[in-house]
Amino acid sequence: NAGVTQTPKFQVLKTGQSMTLQCAQDMNHNSMYWYRQDPGMGLRLIYYSASEGTTDKGEVPNGYNVSRLNKREFSLRLESAAPSQTSVYFCASSGSLAGQITDTQYFGPGTRLTVL
Amino acid sequence: KQEVTQIPAALSVPEGENLVLNCSFTDSAIYNLQWFRQDPGKGLTSLLLIQSSQREQTSGRLNASLDKSSGRSTLYIAASQPGDSATYLCAALYANDYKLSFGAGTTVTVRA
């Protein structure tokens, strides 16, 4: 039981490049989330998916797109990376029953992204 | 705007001392309040979740209290150990949109 896994662990991009961050969970959770963490600012929600087939914007969605590929996988795409997107990105999941968005969230180990 | 604040940003105590970590939130209409631990370079690990109808939750040496009327939660860690050194984050789940709002965290150092 791996929990929440994220790839890659580290990435360096040049301004304007694109990339996709991958996330998968094996806990049969319905809800999945993408956050970014910046020094002194806590975690901020980028996008979330309450259940398979749905996605919604969080607090800071600009410059990102997401895909809920299936129940297990939720990817985050940067179409044209900017230095302001340098951050640590965390994926999380919650809820063992449909709609249990209020359950404890389980986090992946994070992806450290630097945009030059 | 729904804000969650954690003061102080950093705390250093000698081993064996009890830790008291504070979390305040601006909107009392929360669904639950969660405490997480984050080790350097790692993800977040859930410690305790308190439902809005509860006053406290306990797990081993950890106890978290919730006072909705005053917009405060406190995490107590009894008899601290060097292994408790980490950043502790609280997060409030608001009932209107079911999204977690995080505090910036308190970084704890327990000196041996």
Could you walk me through the main structural features you see in this protein, from its secondary elements to its overall organization?
The complex is a heterodimer of chains A (116) and B (112). By secondary structure, chain A is mainly beta. Chain A has no helices and eleven strands. Chain A has strands at residues 4-7, 10-13, 19-25, 31-38, 42-49, 56-57, 64-68, 74-78, 87-94, 106-107, 111-115. In chain A, strands 2, 4, 5, 6, 9, 10 and 11 form a seven-stranded mixed sheet that branches. In chain A, strand 7 and strand 8 form a beta hairpin. Chain B is built from no helices and eleven strands. Chain B has strands at 4-5, 10-14, 19-25, 30-38, 44-51, 56-59, 62-67, 72-77, 86-94, 100-102, 106-111. Chain B has 112 residues and is mainly beta. Chain B starts with a strand and ends with a strand. Chain B is 0% helix and 58% strand. The A-B interface holds A 4, 40-45, 48, 50, 58-59, 90, 92, 101-102, 104-110 and B 4, 9, 31-32, 34, 36, 41-46, 49, 89, 91, 93, 98-100, 102-105.
What descriptive keywords fit this protein?
heterodimer; A: 116 residues; mainly beta; seven-stranded mixed sheet; four-stranded antiparallel sheet; 0% helix; B: 112 residues; five-stranded antiparallel sheet
